[in-house]
Design brief:
single chain, alpha/beta, Aminopeptidase, 2 domains, 8-stranded mixed beta sheet
């Protein structure tokens, strides 16, 4: 008689070629955030084929499938995959390269979606081995504000009861195939967009006494803003403030009447985030006021910080070690990148972890969001089997979640 681990592995191995086909189709036909119409239909068609019930049209193109075990008296958990692509022109030369010019799955969302479809099939085949309910969340718009996670939650997607755990996984090219990585507690940063407009009376650069030097004022703002991190932030809280664009359409002898700047502010503490926004506005307006210019500051709040539940992370790490081997489970460092899975982590005990898609042996270690980004598809066996294992083991002992 097969044990649970062997049964999962055998089902995945028997069906891994189908998962690869699913992923390749999605890779060939990527769609931008909130435009995932055909992707959504593709997911629904597959769920129909394996006889899994679902609701569609959530937050536009989102899909939520529901699987039930041998008894509905067990726990309730949710598994999430994002499905949107990026506005990037692919340059991989793959035989299944994107046919949608200027759109590419350069962040692995095709692998996430295909993996969750593979998990759906495993859980369906093994429904007599677990009790409870599993939501499968196929989420649109992870790459674009306000984020599909928030919009789906706003539509009250958990119709069969609130989950006690939500799990998401994401590719990581720096991690070798067969490995998974976890980070308890603070993992990913909040992400806010900063737009600053400096306005004054421009004019001839040879007569600075007759004009407002908006370029000089903007330069002072860029330098002064660094004090938000170096002198205002608690050194124990990861914080980044970067100005990535300055646009002043003057000339060698023209000081423009307006300079526009754009930047990002990221941190991992919501109270400090709100305080920092006030400091940014005060610094910008104070400098402009003292130098005779007008200043308009617009801070667009993006995704919150992603906080992994400590106890749930510890449990999933130990379960992954049981399934993959201790050497295949690594402790991850914090990242200042952002993820809208954070909205799930704000509302429910959640864990967002990584699975390796890199392969030094064949040189597959391209960076995310790169036109050359590729994955080693052997990673899909790990992503499907480990997530299915985690789901079943959590449902078999929900009191320890």
């Amino acid at each position: 008689m097969q044990n649970l681990k062997d049964e999962i592995q055998n089902i995945v191995r028997d069906n891994i070629s189908d998962v690869i086909k699913l992923r390749r189709y999605l890779h060939t036909h990527p769609e931008l955030s909130f435009e995932e119409i055909n992707t959504s239909k593709f997911i629904c068609d597959y769920l129909d084929d394996i006889e899994v019930n679902y609701s569609k049209g959530i937050a536009g193109t989102g899909v939520v499938a529901i699987l039930r075990g041998k008894s509905v008296k067990g726990g309730i958990i949710a598994l999430r995959a994002d499905m949107d692509a990026l506005p990037i022109k692919e340059n991989t030369g793959l035989e299944y390269e994107s046919v949608n010019t200027g759109v590419m799955h350069a962040c692995g969302h095709d692998a996430h979606t295909a993996s969750l479809l593979g998990v759906a099939k495993v859980l369906k085949k093994m429904s007599d081995k677990w009790s409870g309910t599993v939501y499968l969340i196929f989420q649109p718009g992870e790459e674009l504000l306000p984020g599909g996670a928030k919009l789906m939650l706003d539509e009250n997607i958990f119709s069969e009861g609130e989950p006690s755990a939500i799990i998401g996984q994401h590719v990581l090219p720096e991690l070798e195939v067969g490995n998974v990585g976890f980070c308890p507690g603070r993992y990913m940063a909040s992400c806010d967009e900063i737009y600053i407009k400096v306005k004054g009376n421009g004019g001839h650069a040879a007569m600075p006494h007759r004009l407002t030097d908006t370029v000089l004022i903007a330069s002072n703002i860029v330098v002064a803003l660094q004090q938000v991190v170096s002198r205002r932030a608690d050194t124990r809280i990861p914080t980044v403030l970067s100005v990535g664009r300055i646009e002043g359409l003057g000339a060698t002898n023209v000081i423009p009447s307006e300079v526009n700047m754009q930047g990002t502010f990221r941190t991992m503490d919501e109270d400090w985030r709100a305080e920092a926004h006030k400091h940014i506005i005060d610094i910008c307006q104070g400098i402009c006021r003292s130098m005779g210019a007008e200043c308009i500051v617009d801070i667009k709040k993006g995704y919150p910080a992603l906080i992994n539940d400590d106890s749930l992370t510890d449990r999933l790490m130990n379960l992954s070690k049981d399934f993959l081997g201790e050497e295949s489970v690594v402790l991850m460092e914090q990242r200042m990148t952002a993820e809208d899975f954070a909205y799930f982590s704000q509302n429910y005990p959640s864990v967002f972890y990584r699975f390796g898609v890199g392969s030094k042996r064949v040189g597959m270690n391209n960076k995310l969001h790169s036109p050359e980004f590729v994955i080693d598809e052997n990673a899909l066996e790990t992503s499907v089997s480990n997530m299915a294992w985690l789901a079943i083991k959590l449902l078999s002992n929900t009191k320890k979640i």
